[in-house]
Amino acid sequence: MIWRLVRAALEEQVEVAARSVLDVVDAGGGTGNLAVPIARLGHRVTVVDPSPDSLAALERRAEEAGVTDRVRAVQGDAADLPDVLQTTADLVLCHSVLEVVDDPGVALRALAGVLRPGGALSVVVANRYGLVLTKLLGGHIAEARTALTDPAGRWGVSDPVPRRFTAEQLRRAVEDAGLVVLAEHGVRVVTDLVPSRCADDPGGVDELLQLESLASEDPTFRALATQLHVLARRL
Q1: Which of 31, 71, 117, 149 lies most in the core, judged by the most C-beta atoms within 10 Å?
Q2: Residuewise pLDDT in 10s, the chain (235 residues)
Q3: Of the candidates 47, 53, 58, which has an alpha carbon nearest to the alpha carbon of residue 23?
Q4: What gap in Å lies between CA 196 and CA 207, rounded to an integer?
Q5: Whole-angstrom Cα distance, residue 81 to residue 52?
Q6: CA–CA distance from 125 to each of 89, 142, 162, 171, 221 (Å)?
């Protein structure tokens, strides 16, 4: 699902920029799960990540894929992006990062600051309501209640995730960074809820993927997704 959204964003930005090769930044991109496939499409990708071990793994992966000339590894944090990059981008990815940064607002403004006019930002975050549903279905009622009422959307003191978002919170944070929201999606809306035996049935998998695609754009189901995705643009 994530790759489908990223691929669509790339295709749209190619039209907006009127160039076949884009400059892409993956903030917190780690070992290159997205960066290497993007580079295979011919785009230039800079991965900014605080972990030197992850960046070393990225470089190995890029070498194995034959795209070292299109992948650059830079150590740094999302909030320091303008300083560590000293360049601009057509598309910035920020997936599973805002949950752990010191200040999501500061990080989003930094991400927006490296976008060229017309550039786009793809953000994926953990969804508070998706966690509530997952905890409830797992029989963890007290943790579900805590996640619903806690200001940061955490299920308890042992929760390893510092914060989660609602769709409204994410949209407002992106807009406060000066960007215009183009599209919103749920990620893993239904796939985390179905019995594991569905994965053993090829026909069932196809049906599930089709249902996931439809549900990801429906506001009611999107609110219950495991993750939330926003695509926004700098005008």
Answers
A1: 71
A2: 899 999 999 999 999 999 999 999 999 999 999 999 999 999 999 999 999 999 999 999 999 999 999 999 999 999 999 999 988 999 999 999 999 999 999 999 999 999 999 999 999 999 999 999 999 999 999 999 999 999 999 999 999 999 999 999 999 999 999 999 999 999 999 887 777 666 666 667 788 888 888 889 899 999 999 999 999 999 9
A3: 47
A4: 14
A5: 16
A6: 21, 23, 12, 11, 16
Sequence-distant (≥ 6) Cβ neighbours of residue 212 within 8 angstroms: 1, 188, 189, 190, 191
Q: How many CB atoms lie within 10 A of CB 185?
A: 24
DSSP per-residue codes, the chain = -HHHHHHHHHHHHHHHHT-SS-EEEEET-TTTTTHHHHHHTT-EEEEEES-HHHHHHHHHHHHHHT-GGGEEEEE--GGGHHHHH-S-EEEEEEES-TTTSS-HHHHHHHHHHTEEEEEEEEEEEEBHHHHHHHHHHTT-HHHHHHHHHSTT--SSTT-S-S--B-HHHHHHHHHHTT-EEEEEEEESSSTTTS-GGGGG-HHHHHHHHHHHHHHHT-HHHHTTSSEEEEEEE--
167, 139, 138: which is closest to 153 by C-alpha?
A: 167
What's the chain's Rg over C-alpha atoms?
Answer: 18
Which position has the token pair 């969804």?
Answer: 127
- Residue 215 is which amino acid? A
Burial of 83 (0-12, 13-18, 19+ CB in 10 A): exposed
